[in-house]
Amino acid sequence: MKNSRLKTALLTVTLLSGVTSFSQDGTDRLWVTFENQSSLPQMKEGKLKSSHPAIQKLIDEHAIVSVSQALPDSRREDLQMVYEIDCFCNGDALAEEMKKVAILKDPVEGPKYELLSLPDDYAVEFPQDYALDLINAEEAWSYTHGDTNVILGISDGSFLTEHEELTSKYVSVTNMVNASMNYYYHGTAVATTAAGATDNLVGKSAIGYNCKLALNTIGYNQLLQLHYSGARVLNASWTTGCSYNAYTQQVIDEIYEDGGIVVAAAGNGNATCGSASALVYPAALNHVIAVSSVGPNDNHERYIGDPNSTHQHNSSVDICAPGYDVALTISSGTYMYGNGTSFASPYVAGTIGLLLSVRPCLTFENVLEILQTTAVNIDAQNSAYIGGLGAGRLDAGAAMEYISTYLCDGVDLGNSGVIDFGNNPNILNPGSGMNPGTSNGASTGNNGGIISTHGNNTGTIGGSGPTTPTSVEYTRDHLMNSDGNRVGESTPTVNQDEFEAVLFPNPSNGIANLKWTVAGDVELQVYSSTGNLVLNKKIGSEESQTTIEVGNPGVYFIQLRSAGEQIWTQKLVKL
Description:
The chain has 11 helices and 28 strands. It is α/β, with parallel strands linked by helices. The chain folds into 3 domains: 28-109, no CATH class; 114-403, Rossmann fold (3-Layer(aba) Sandwich); 417-574, Immunoglobulin-like. A 7-stranded parallel beta sheet has the order 10-11-9-12-14-15-16, with helices on both faces. A 5-stranded mixed beta sheet has the order 19-28-27-24-25, with no helix packed on it. A 4-stranded antiparallel beta sheet has the order 4-5-1-6. Helix 6 packs parallel to helix 9 (341-358), helix 9 runs parallel beside helix 11 (396-403) and helix 10 crosses helix 11.
């Protein structure tokens, strides 16, 4: 976990050659808090006008050309008051003058966005894809192919949405811009690395497999847009500078506090901030998983023996993934090798998508713990960089194996059944490999969709009850406690082996009815996907049913307990 960075009132960023800024040519950009909204400048007859004399003076003397809300999609009141200022001026001088105006607080240099890639060639067809082998993707896929309800948000330059590896994978595209082809190439390569179309006889495979994508352009507000549109995992393969910014940290904190997980490229060595040991942002911010690069032999030096050929190694790096000479696709029918932490980061983001497909309850801390606990130690290959490569190299297969019996903050969700209020995901059973979802001992018939979750069954059944979806897909495995032993080996008040329960979801109002067959005192608990307990009630032995209203759309975990032991659990998805 990163420590808080030193906060400064004014941040100066030295731009790299070739860096593209999203402000107008020749302008400087600042972010500042307006504490009095009535003094905000307005455009009148083509000129900015403010009712506040001091602000009008700043506009006139520093050639301020635009004032706009920097983070309109934030749900924090303080960030709603942050505005982006573009001027034909010296930004440092303007910031110093702003500090003299009482209603303007904390002026800092605004983000200047740079994509983190070093592509070799746009027309090379590669003979093999070492990266997926290195991170043990095949083993990871033996546990799950991913859940289509898990959305990976990709904030990047732009995207070729008609690409054969993208056209079926994205659920939304926001803020598409007319940019140079390098921006389209970069965004397309990052998105398809994370979760491009897989198992389609075309192109290449992606670690995120069946996980879906939400696509947006570069920016901190775009990260907010992606998160609040439903993407829990966000990938940022870009940098905004080499210094800490309190505003951007608050953006990341907002996403983190709402259950989001941000993954970012750590930087491309001497080409980023002038040194491979320099901190690069947003990767170096708190609550961001920062990813640096290794090659096919877990080598951090792209050219072994050449220390000038590395990407970032510093205290902010959390983990490494393949980032040298990795197989990419940048446009339809075009596959190439590329270098950059831009492409290491989506391997981690896609792996997190697989983790959440099986354990949606995982928090940021859970995910970071799992990735780092299961990472491959690469110190022996990189003795000169010990302490700067995080926990080592990503091992997606080991991470998936680790969570097969993982407890989320003391709540074992197992491979819980799914009751989906509309669009049922494809649920896989990690305990038994790739289960196609055919009926294995599940009861069927005109019983209103009643199913038994007794035993280790996996299947799909239909029911004709008025409140039951057309099909219900579910899995069930034996639940494990923190010692790795089966829950229920002691005898609870209600016998788990005899206990059967069924959920009747009502897609019209989002209220589910829960019924069970064995009498006894039980405790009902409902957890959100972030691990928060949203409902807890005790039910006496004289009752054998209850209703569950989960409120906001999302993933919830329902469990019944008896004598302190879990006897039944299912996952409920409200769309």
